[in-house]
């Protein structure tokens, strides 16, 4: 299991993924689940993956192989993010059909191609997908239930990127606290609209000072608010 969250906001995009994979408590390891594809001054794309690791690695391998072939559409020459979502969905469906329905996977595709606004898609194992909107500016895949309440309460399309990042990290912290199948380190990327840059990428470990600080402050804040609730009177 894993947890990934992506946000499409008025000023840019936020992507956060954990890196834990496991096949039982005796087989826990880390694999990157946030992958960036970039063409200078023309496009920046991010793929996040959850589900069966063999499936998602096969999909990414096939997509990367196609990137070297300019005679067919690929991540680096697709005309629009919609076209690329179709391509990624078809690849995911083909891999699952080859390997079996029990080896599923779900992907998030986000970013910007010059001439378009930033876009964000959630791609399902069947190969179909939905797109984020102003009213629904974020998607989660994997172990999403623990981190969803804070996002629903805080996030809006107009939320500044700095606050959205705080929200995404607290959402991840809530998931880390409640599910051992999600774990550090985290891979994080901030994309600013029309920058076509992949420079704001971060690798967050247990010792990361800012993440440690907000985790502690959030926990103390929750306890403080809880202690101030009025006594129960039925």
UniProtKB/TrEMBL annotation:
The keyword Protease applies. One of its GO terms (biological process) is proteolysis involved in protein catabolic process. InterPro entries: Ntn_hydrolases_N (IPR029055), Proteasome_sua/b (IPR001353), UCP009120_prtse (IPR016545). One of its GO terms (molecular function) is peptidase activity. Gene3D superfamilies: Glutamine Phosphoribosylpyrophosphate, subunit 1, domain 1. It holds the Pfam family Proteasome. Keywords: Hydrolase, Protease, Proteasome. GO terms for cellular component: proteasome core complex. This is Proteasome-type protease. It comes from Pantoea sp. BJ2. The lineage of its organism: Bacteria, Pseudomonadati, Pseudomonadota, Gammaproteobacteria, Enterobacterales.
